[in-house]
Amino acid sequence: MLTKIVTFSVLTIASGQLLAAECKTTVDSTDQMSFNTKAIEIDKSCKTFTVELTHSGSLPKNVMGHNWVLSKEADMQPIATDGLSAGVDKDYLKDGDARVIAHTKVIGAKESDSVTFDVSKLAAGEKYGFFCSFPGHMSMMKGTVTLK
């Protein structure tokens, strides 16, 4: 009887770990102005969520730099437009832009950066998106973020 209880307990613990939400993802960017994903789903059980941005290309950040920016979908284009004049040293984002929920720095070939944000900043039912704010990249480098 004790063996059955111990076995059951071990299986319960193991299955609980398998069911735990994945609260991080890696997004790769390339010299072809692309992300390797168009959609990110965040489990509501996550307190924080981490995005690691990698750049598998060969070009430097001043030529083909990429960042990962999270905002409401409606704010994506205005954020990118307002960030044009900020320049690469400020990650093509206007200082103190409250519409930006989270962002990485602009990275170049073989570099990476990550950002961790509070999931409570996301509201159920709101439409969120991610994009690269490097000038001209948003048309191809964007996707959706869904709270599930």
UniProtKB/TrEMBL annotation:
Gene3D superfamilies: Cupredoxins - blue copper proteins
Gene Ontology cellular-component annotations: periplasmic space
Subcellular location: Periplasm
Domain Blue (type 1) copper: 21-148
Cell membrane among keywords: no
GO molecular function term, any single one: electron transfer activity
Pfam families: Copper-bind
Keywords, sorted A to Z: Copper, Disulfide bond, Electron transport, Metal-binding, Periplasm, Signal, Transport
Primary localisation category: periplasm
Signal peptide annotation: 1-20
Keyword Disulfide bond attached: yes
Function: Transfers electrons from cytochrome c551 to cytochrome oxidase.
Record's protein name: Azurin
Lineage summary: Bacteria, Pseudomonadati, Pseudomonadota, Gammaproteobacteria, Pseudomonadales
